[in-house]
């Protein structure tokens, strides 16, 4: 790679979709996911010279994404957003939302979205991004044991939610 511009372009091609899905499942908002994903790669570009290679580039990017999501969820913009913008059925589905739903059964996606952010991010990073519990721990700032516990609890909550859906036909 001969320049930072080429480097960031390669990173975007390789990791954009995974970062976007992670941000979307964290924020539950398509437009915010688009904006924050762009911010992740802008931050990565600005920080390329500071990347210490102590972890993989993928782990580094997901750490930036998690920090951006955390900042957003703590922000005034998130807390003051009108509730109608958060209701998915009032918005027309995007290509990204259709892609996510085609990857997972709609009930599984709905169940995933009922999890807390801490549990949801572990599931997404482990299952969709194929990261190890150690790598996830680096991203979320927790030990691999804590990540494993969150993952087990998330899977149990998903199982319960999906069983409820299966037996009741809805939430």
Give the structure's gist in a few sentences.
The protein is mainly α and 171 residues long. It contains nine helices and no strands.
Structural account:
The structure is a single chain. By secondary structure, the protein is mostly helical. The protein has two domains: 1-90, Rna Polymerase Sigma Factor, Chain: A, CATH 1.10.1740.10; 104-171, Winged helix-like DNA-binding domain superfamily/Winged helix DNA-binding domain (Arc Repressor Mutant, subunit A, Orthogonal Bundle). Helices cover 74% and strands 0% of the residues. It is built from nine helices and no strands. The chain has helices spanning 4-27, 30-47, 57-74, 76-79, 95-103, 106-114, 117-128, 133-140, 144-168. Helix 6 packs across helix 9 and helix 7 crosses helix 9 (144-168). The chain starts with a helix and ends with a helix.
């Amino acid at each position: 790679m001969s320049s930072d511009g080429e480097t960031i372009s390669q990173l975007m091609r390789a990791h954009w979709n995974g970062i976007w899905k992670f941000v979307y499942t964290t924020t539950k908002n398509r437009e915010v996911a688009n904006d924050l994903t762009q911010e992740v790669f802008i931050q990565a570009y600005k920080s390329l010279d500071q990347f210490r290679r102590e972890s993989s580039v993928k782990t580094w990017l997901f750490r930036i994404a998690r920090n951006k999501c955390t900042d957003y969820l703590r922000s005034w913009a998130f807390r003051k957003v009108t509730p109608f913008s958060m209701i998915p059925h009032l918005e027309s589905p995007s290509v990204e939302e259709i892609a996510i739903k085609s990857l997972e059964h709609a009930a599984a996606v709905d169940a995933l979205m009922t999890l807390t952010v801490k549990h949801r991010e572990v599931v997404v990073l482990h299952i969709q991004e194929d990261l190890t519990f150690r790598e996830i721990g680096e991203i979320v700032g927790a030990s691999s044991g804590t990540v494993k516990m969150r993952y087990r609890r998330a899977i149990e909550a998903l199982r319960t939610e999906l069983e409820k859906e299966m037996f009741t036909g809805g939430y």
